[in-house]
Design brief:
Order of helices and strands: EEHHEEEEE
Number of strands: 7
Radius of gyration: 11 Å
Largest sheet: 5 strands, mixed
Number of helices: 2
Helix content: 10-25%
Distance between the termini: 22 Å
Strand content: 25-35%
């Protein structure tokens, strides 16, 4: 369990991953339907800014936040 405000690094095994895939891969959401809904509702931030694109490409160092859980993309 991570402390509030802490950032957990998530190795993705490559250089890039799409936002929708990352939310599932990082264990923040379970299904594509959930991912689509929370992104469309503006509930997900990337590097502190709301992003409404499931297909946004994330790279090393990008920080995704959802419901207080923060995950950083690592290769």
């Amino acid at each position: 369990m991570t402390n509030p405000g802490s950032i957990e690094d998530v190795p993705i095994g490559g250089d890039m991953i799409r936002l929708g895939q990352f939310l599932k891969f990082a264990g923040l959401l379970d299904s594509g339907g959930e991912v689509k809904e929370v992104i469309a509702e503006g509930m997900v931030t990337v590097n502190g800014e709301v992003d409404l694109r499931r297909g946004r490409q994330l790279h090393d160092g990008d920080v995704v936040e959802f419901e207080g859980h923060r995950r950083r993309v690592r290769p």
